[in-house]
Amino acid sequence: MTLLELTDVTAFYGPVQVLDAVSLSVPDGGAVGILGANGAGKTTTLRAISGTVRAGGSIVFDGKDIRGLRPDQVAGLGIAHVPEGRGTLGDLTVRENLRVGAYKRKDRKGIQSDIDYCIDLFPQLKERIKSNASALSGGEQQMLAVGRAIMSKPRLLLLDEASLGLAPSTAKTVYEAIRRLRIESGIAMVVVEQNANLAFTLVDSATVLETGRNVLTGSSAELKGMDEIRRAYLGG
Ligand SMILES: Nc1ncnc2c1ncn2[C@@H]1O[C@H](COP(=O)(O)OP(=O)(O)O)[C@@H](O)[C@H]1O
Ligand SMILES: [Mg+2]
């Protein structure tokens, strides 16, 4: 079953159109990458899905057209956005940030067991649980941002450049945890990355954007085999 289907999506900042025609298909439980250079429209595509930019075309989630819904309505349907720059709340502790992710839930036991799960997934957060988010390293903040998203019990996770600014070993740790999350939870994912090597450890398929359009779409295996992908995105 297809969980999310974007067809010819356009997007605008004021009068300026930055997505021309973006299409994307995410199977239930699947993980799809969006690759592309700076400014290609990757972040804007995620914003179109989460309702934080004005968009045209069709965005269907779980059989329902969600284009034009408010961000809180989209979140309420089970779409969690881990934005570029992480968006953790610096004045709140790690535990409080995790609880904020669960603010719509009433199942106290479930919330606690999901906090435990986040800590199991990202053990570094355990000793930081009472620290303010602002005191965390970049890698820990990224882990917290993913953890906070998990706490809403989403069906779909939108991940924007989870590796940005992290040391390679930290980025790898974060991606391994997200891969484990994917296997254990079955949460579907849209994974925006400039680091295609990392993205391909997580996604089954991907699309490459250039100036707000898809220029290549295929399975991870197909894309990894293409010369133009290797040259532009895989350092070879
Ligand atoms: N808030 C904004 N206002 C106006 N233009 C923007 C804004 N955010 C991004 N853009 C422009 O939209 C285009 C796509 O940006 P973005 O989606 O952030 O690309 P990417 O995430 O692939 O780097 C770029 O040309 C960028 O300059
Ligand atoms: Mg971006």
Automatic annotation (TrEMBL):
Residue ranges annotated for the ABC transporter domain, each copy included: 4-236
GO molecular function term, any single one: ATP binding
Keyword ATP-binding: yes
InterPro entries, per database record: AAA+_ATPase, ABC_transporter-like_ATP-bd, ABC_transporter-like_CS, BCAA_Transport_ATP-bd_LivF, P-loop_NTPase
Keywords: Amino-acid transport, ATP-binding, Nucleotide-binding, Transport
Database matches in PROSITE patterns: ABC_TRANSPORTER_1 (PS00211), ABC_TRANSPORTER_2 (PS50893)
Family: Belongs to the ABC transporter superfamily.
Name of this protein: ABC transporter ATP-binding protein
Originating species: Microbacterium alkaliflavum
